[in-house]
Amino acid sequence: MSFFVAQQVTKIFGGLVAVNKVDFVIEQGMIAGLIGPNGAGKTTFFNMITGVYPLSHGSFTFDGQDIGALKPHEITALGIARTFQNIRLFPAMSVIDNVLVGMHTRLKSNLIDTIFKTQRLQKEEEMAKGKALDLLDYVGLGRNRAPISARSLAYGDQRRLEIARALASEPKLLLLDEPTAGMNQSETADLTKFIRFVREDLKLTVLLIEHHMRVVMGISDRVSVLDHGEKIAEGTPTEVQNNQQVIEAYLGSGAGH
Amino acid sequence: MGKYVKRGLLIGFIGGFLSLLFGGWTATILAVVGGLLTGFVSGTEGNEEQRDLKGLAVAGLIGGVIMALGGLVYDLWLSHIAGLKTHPDDVMYLSAILAIVLCPLMAVFMGRVQQMRDKKRLRIVNAIILLAFLFVFPFVEEATNSAWLASLIFAEIYVLLALGLNIVVGFAGLLDLGYAAFFAIGAYTTGLMSSPLHGIHVNFWILIWLSAVVAGLFGILLGTPTLRLRGDYLAIVTLGFGEIVPVAFTQLIKITLKEPITCYFVPLLSKLTGGQPVAQCLVLVDNFNLTAGVKGVSPLDRPVLPIISPVDDGLSLVLKLAIMAILVGLVAFLFMRSRRNGNRSKWALLGYGLALAAIIIAFVPFPKAGVVENPDPLTATVTAVMNTVQPGPLVSDNPIAWYFLMLALLGLSLVIIFRLRDSRLGRTWTAVREDELAANQMGVNLRNTKLLAFAMGATFSGFAGAFYGAYYNGIFPSVFEFSASVIILSAVVLGGIGNVSGVILGALIIMVMDNLVLKQLQAVLNGLQSNVLLPAAGNNLAAKQFIQANLDPVKYRFLLLGLVLVVTMAIRPEGLLPSREQREELHRAEETGETPEQLEAEPLPTPM
Known about the structure:
The structure holds 2 protein chains of 2 kinds. By secondary structure, chain A is of the alpha/beta class. In chain A, 39% of the residues lie in helices and 23% in strands. Chain A has a 6-stranded mixed β-sheet with strand order 6-7-8-3-9-10, with helices on both faces. Chain A has a 4-stranded antiparallel β-sheet with strand order 2-1-4-5, with helices on one face. By secondary structure, chain B is mainly α. Among the domains of chain B are: 1-146, no CATH class; 154-248 and 396-493, no CATH class; 314-389, no CATH class. Chain B has a two-stranded antiparallel sheet with strand order 1-2. Chain B has a two-stranded antiparallel sheet with strand order 3-4. In chain B, strand 1 and strand 2 (200-201) form a beta hairpin. In chain B, helix 3 packs antiparallel against helix 4. Chain B is globular. Chain A binds chain B through residues 50, 52, 71-73, 76-77, 81-82, 84, 86, 88-93, 97, 100-102, 104-105, 107, 109, 111, 114-115, 117, 119, 121-122, 125, 149, 151, 155, 165-166, 169, 178, 181-183, 211-214, 250, and chain B through 344-345, 416, 419-420, 423-425, 427-428, 430-431, 434-435, 437-446, 452, 580-582, 584-585, 588, 602-608.
């Protein structure tokens, strides 16, 4: 059984078929790329995996477990974390609190612990804060920026914080939705390197949506292409790059001639 | 310097207006408060060089003079023409002089304190000054006979309510327009179980917790089906609930419960088959009056209050307070020590034990100190002073005891609220408020998180309700109508949504205005009306009617409340004391010169 399997996954909004019978497999430790032109259904696919949209048809299996009917928070607890295409941090909260919210599913303290400030709570909070600071260092934000509000971070740093927040939930599968959107070339190169490093270091599996063809081709082990909600190609980056259908989907049907 | 003159004029204007309404010692009391506040505010701004003690003295002096003038105008002129209570000459002049002297002194003293470099120590010192003020205030109030304490106790209850609502609205961002419903549920829980109405007399000290739990359960009950709604929809549902509850308490006076099978099903069946009904209808409850309707529940059992228990001797009170103080000090010491050592359990356990002992001692009536023949001057003085503090024999009619009780419970609530805010739960509340979808994707269970916020808010409301019932000694459904929810929400908005100290300030301002200032203003205007305006109107009937119909500020309380809110929203939309987050959010656009829309807009993705 593969690590993550999507079978005949379909999403219908009213009369519109946003994702149509997509089959998709990710093996453990892989960086999988998901590309396609605007409106191809990539983000919808992400939202289905993480439980934001219920499936119209089909199933998802993650780590041997059917997650198709689970609630978003249950899916996160199983070990799938994500970032967002249009950054969705908690802007008014401090940088460290953003990361701590990401850690939510890994913390246990409850209402009684909180009201009586039990030792368990104090130990856990101390541990969590230490871990969060380490994570800030890890993604290159630096722990000295922990107390400032997330809103005041620069754009690229907000992206980093989003990744830190996702990593805080100790995922086995990390979903990155256009992580280099809005970044310049050197920032993009840094981030690409970082994604590769994280995969090795944390033994993660990564699913990456990208608009930047170069980024995807550079780091993905396997690339799938969506167009109009259907998977039109799959294979190694080189295979996909030379696929006629893909070129047409991206550049219009006249491009091949 | 201009800044300080302005500030002096501001406190002078507010304090002077109040002294003008009340006269007597008001000017002095307000001068102390105003001076301390001016000094304190100077500490929250700028760097230390900018804190100018001379400027503070000037501000204090201006404020003090205006307040003194206000008091003098009342006692020399206004009280006479309006036919209100006058104060003796010595009180009047002494109060004015003290106001002028104390206001700058307090401002400079507090400003000097704020210059302390050790921030942690400064916080402790500020807290001590605040506590000392809160401790001394009721005794001063009693000694100066200004009859504010009853209003202040109501204000304390509303502070508790506002703090509870702040959890729901401020922390979790759920707009609740029917918050008073939980207040009513808490009050009625206490009322029904400790009054002659049903002959149930549960001890008040059990009931307050029970009321809080019952209100919390109702919070869960209401929240479960409705919290999936967002924003406006939730507000409408809570509004409906807020309307239903007082109506329900008014109407639950003829409850009849019939057992359904024998009363409805069997007769229906026999009717259909044409036979005679065989079973006897079983009536479970017949015409039961649960809430006494509009008449309300009154009186309630009088609780035994701590500290001032049935003693009619000042000395035993002093002894008791001394023992309490030593115990509290020990407890504080133990907790600080345990924290420093990192080895909490042992010392903390001892601390909890001593705290419990202090609470028990607070309830134990101390024996009367024997009458000492020819006591030494010190003992005699202390006895005399303390005896002025002791009112009648019935304990729970002593407002000072209620004041301190509410203060202690407010303190307890604050500790809980701060712990909630800074915990894993508080973080999820903020996260849900900020971005529900993102929070959900980070593993936050939305339903449980919102439900908990709702239930916690309701719990505090129920807590406040229990106190309200017991203190007011009566519960009437009209108190819990929509207007109560509006007032509590206004307090939260006025003070600064989400910020605990702001919310406290907002609730204090609104309640003091509503309960104290407006009533006194009414008395003054009534006096003026009958003594000055009506005679002046002479035979002009239309003018007389106009004056009689319109010169009543209490009629306009909601108009005034609305005005205050409109002005606040126009000048300072984040409230008087906003949280850092709110301030940033509302003023970000000004600082960067961009509109919020531009800031939120996505940068365009670069083409491949």
